[in-house]
């Protein structure tokens, strides 16, 4: 049974507005403080991106996700501006993200808008940085361009990865029987795990490197 192909064809057969809308909603929710611990925005985007097998599908998904991510970040910023440092004392952040909150706040104080851009590529920190930016007093006119640039770059990277994985899965499945497909499925899952882990470490390394450089005047 061509399981992978069947699933991909089922996803591709869904009405595009529904698929894109659901993906945008997940990304928006992930980017809003607190919901990133619940909404699987990054995973949902990778799955949806496997259906981006034509230029129009790719471009529409990219545009919608970029806008939703930017709006979600802007809402997180507004929440941080409204409630200030009290957000750190909320039960959700105390339970899941105190260290990430402190790290995001520290980097924001050091690097300003640059931290907003690079935090987009870091799980957990990505969710907390917009609110931390609002709390830190970073001006919105500096925050918004950095958030938008990060959203555009992040969505392009993940949609490209998802589209490539979808095409590769179809090609591989066409050459294997069911037993071989199980082995490949395991290998692909392991490969994706280590790919995301490597990407996270690389991005974290770049962010930490920037924090050690002398601060420049904004």
Automatic annotation (TrEMBL):
<dbReference type="InterPro" id="IPR032816">
    <property type="entry name" value="VTT_dom"/>
</dbReference>
<dbReference type="Pfam" id="PF09335">
    <property type="entry name" value="VTT_dom"/>
</dbReference>
<keyword id="KW-0812">Transmembrane</keyword>
<dbReference type="InterPro" id="IPR032818">
    <property type="entry name" value="DedA-like"/>
</dbReference>
<keyword id="KW-1003">Cell membrane</keyword>
<feature type="transmembrane region" description="Helical">
    <location>
        <begin position="59"/>
        <end position="79"/>
    </location>
</feature>
<feature type="domain" description="VTT">
    <location>
        <begin position="57"/>
        <end position="163"/>
    </location>
</feature>
<feature type="transmembrane region" description="Helical">
    <location>
        <begin position="143"/>
        <end position="164"/>
    </location>
</feature>
<protein>
    <submittedName>
        <fullName>DedA family protein</fullName>
    </submittedName>
</protein>
<keyword id="KW-0472">Membrane</keyword>
<feature type="transmembrane region" description="Helical">
    <location>
        <begin position="18"/>
        <end position="39"/>
    </location>
</feature>
<feature type="transmembrane region" description="Helical">
    <location>
        <begin position="176"/>
        <end position="196"/>
    </location>
</feature>
<keyword id="KW-1133">Transmembrane helix</keyword>
<comment type="similarity">
    <text>Belongs to the DedA family.</text>
</comment>
């Amino acid at each position: 049974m061509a399981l992978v192909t069947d699933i991909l064809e089922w996803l591709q057969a869904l009405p595009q507005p529904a698929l894109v809308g659901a993906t945008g909603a997940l990304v928006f929710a992930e980017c809003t403080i607190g919901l990133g611990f619940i909404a699987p925005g990054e995973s949902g985007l990778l799955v949806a991106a496997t259906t981006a097998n034509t230029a129009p599908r790719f471009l529409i998904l990219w545009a919608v996700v970029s806008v939703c991510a930017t709006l979600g970040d802007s809402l997180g910023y507004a929440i941080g501006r409204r409630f200030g440092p009290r957000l750190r004392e909320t039960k959700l952040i105390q339970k899941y993200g105190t260290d990430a909150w402190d790290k995001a706040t520290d980097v924001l104080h050091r690097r300003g808008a640059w931290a907003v851009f690079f935090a987009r590529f870091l799980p957990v920190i990505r969710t907390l940085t917009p609110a931390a930016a609002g709390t830190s007093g970073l001006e919105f006119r500096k925050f918004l361009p950095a958030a938008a640039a990060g959203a555009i770059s992040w969505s392009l990277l993940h949609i490209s990865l998802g589209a490539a994985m979808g095409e590769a899965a179809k090609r591989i499945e066409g050459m294997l029987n069911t037993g071989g497909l199980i082995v490949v499925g395991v290998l692909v899952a392991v490969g994706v795990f280590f790919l995301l882990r490597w990407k996270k470490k690389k991005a974290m390394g770049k962010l930490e490197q920037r924090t050690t450089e002398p601060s420049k005047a904004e």
